[in-house]
Amino acid sequence: MVDSTMVSDLNQEEVNDICIKALQDQIRSPSYQHTEAVKWNQNVVETVTESLVRLGYPYKYCVCCVIMQAGLGAGLNIASMCFWDKQIDVNFVVRWESKAVIAVCNVFALRLDNLPPQIMKSDVEENCDGHVNTNGGS
Which domain of life is it from (predicted)? Predict the structure, then answer.
């Protein structure tokens, strides 16, 4: 059992760096391209998840990303909720934008006592099958 006084060893700075790098690497276009947005989104959530797992923390992750066109005056409201242990599980929100795109990544990290302290790169490759559940696209 994990001590209830334990604080998360995963921090906002690490998650920010991972999410922002993934978004910048994927969304290089100077304009929003609806036909490319599904691919951008899939690649971002895959890259962020794989990068988080490679950190070796004993968590299971859920990564969500919203990518929308900027500059249209449209509002964006995102909400999420989880039932979890507030002492050991964590949630991070990372916002990134360019002149053409607004993106928000939401990372849920659920700490598991029975995971090994270090997860090797080979474990990531075996367990990240490249399938992403999205709402829309091909």
Answer: Eukaryota
End-to-end CA gap in the chain: 42
Three-class DSSP category at 17 = helix
pLDDT tens digits, one per residue of 104-113: 999 999 988 7
What residues are paired with 67 via a beta bridge?
103
pTM, entire model: 0.75
CATH classification code of 12-126: 3.30.1140.40
Q: Are 51 and 87 in contact (CB under 8 A)?
A: no
Domain ranges of the chain: 12-126
DSSP letter, residue 100: S
Helix, strand, coil abundance in the chain, percent, nearest 5: 30, 20, 45
Q: Which stretches in the chain have pLDDT values below 50? A: 1-7, 120-121, 129-138
